[in-house]
What we know:
Elements: H1 4-11, E1 13-16, E2 21-25, E3 28-31, H2 37-46, E4 56-58, H3 76-92, E5 95-96, H4 107-113, E6 122-125, E7 139-142, H5 145-154, E8 156-160, E9 163-170, H6 179-190, E10 198-203, H7 205-208, H8 212-220, E11 229-231, H9 236-242, H10 251-261, E12 274-279, E13 286-288, E14 296-298, H11 314-324, E15 339-342, H12 344-347, H13 350-360, E16 370-373, H14 378-386, H15 389-395, E17 421-424, E18 439-442, H16 445-454
Parallel strand pairs: 3-4, 3-6, 4-5, 6-7, 9-10, 9-12, 10-11, 15-16, 15-17, 17-18
Antiparallel strand pairs: 1-2, 2-8, 13-14
Amino acid sequence: MNTLFDKIWDSHTVKTVPGGTSLLYIDRHYCHEVTSPQAFNDMRERGITVFRPEKTFCSPDHNIPTLHQEQPIADPVSRNQVEALTKNAKDFGLTLFGLGNPKNGIIHVIGPENGLTLPGYTIVCGDSHTSTHGAFGAVAFGIGTSEVEMVLASQCIIQPKPKTMRITINGKLKPRVTAKDVALYIISKMTTGGATGYFVEYAGETIRNMSMEERMTVCNLSIEMGARGGMIAPDETTFSYLEGKEYAPKGKSWDKALSYWETLYSGDDAIFDKEIVFDAADIAPRITYGTNPGMGIAITETIPLLEDIDDAGRISFSKSLEYMGFQPGQKLEGMPIDYVFLGSCTNGRIEDFRAFASLVKGKQKAQNVTVWLVPGSWKVVNQIKSEGIDKILEDAGFEIRQPGCSACLAMNEDKIPAGKYAVSTSNRNFEGRQGPGARTILAGPLVAAAAAITGKITDPTLL
């Protein structure tokens, strides 16, 4: 039997092009303001329209401010990009969830929460973290601007078919170990290039016990180990999450879709190009110490020694530690930090805010820390309010900002100052990612919450 990935890829292959690449039909195309302008401009110059406009959904998210969204965007570059997306969506007849729209938010958050992301779909977006949507049993991956144009014009894309890898995680997670810890653990073991050329399916008891939002976090970070994408076979957890969502099938269409979705799994005889197995018992709350997501340790561990790094990686390892201001063998637990960021397409969903609030309830924010809490969408904002999470956070001294990508990549005003340390629930810790000279320590929502109330890197299992 074919793998889940093979089933979806092969059923969407319109034609196999000489040389082995596939002409792949795309079910859903997501579009934001950063990677799409040139694609639309080229469409205009060529005098062509969007082939199937009902398949593309747009939302500004990267550049939008997280304060005073009701006012004009101050930064001219950001304003121009957002205005360009608005005009392009209107001119080409595309659905736009613009600023002020109750469905606006980070594209990888609003797709699932509105039922636009469905099992068995092929999904693309001009954004590397499109792999998030694979949590629903979809083949989802990021594309470049020229490919955005290709999808707009033809609803197809030319792609080489990746190899397949299955990562199985057995057992149950320890208390206060989150899906983000699982993902960071996997990346540290695989390295940032360990899955290059592969599409990863996550399996095992640990994955099956995860909620949809936890699964999205794991799939979101697939790209950080070089994978083309990540996916998880849909099951009752998936179906329950989708049922009743606005764009999900209804009535007889739901029954028909469900009967198809139930066939979307890799059989016992499915053959993967590579198999990896991990034990959930080995995973603890984690942080990163370097400038790529693979440079990570458990909070209780120390940064590796230089002799523990292979010869090929020692120069980049040393350069990374120099940027971060760390030393080989250093323990980071207890180290003071300056900023905490909860948000992004990795950890900006309602469950992340519930987790954060569960740890800070009845406590107070540390005076030395600036904390940015940025929901992934307006729907998340409304859930925060309806569940009383806003009151818990306010009582603890925190402020909730408006939705957007925010400090994940600092394309708006939310920039970490040079030299400052930020415990961040986002997905990348590259040099300057959160602002020129910013030092990023990736973590999950519970580690972020512990840092926010203690003012230092703290093991959440101790609180």
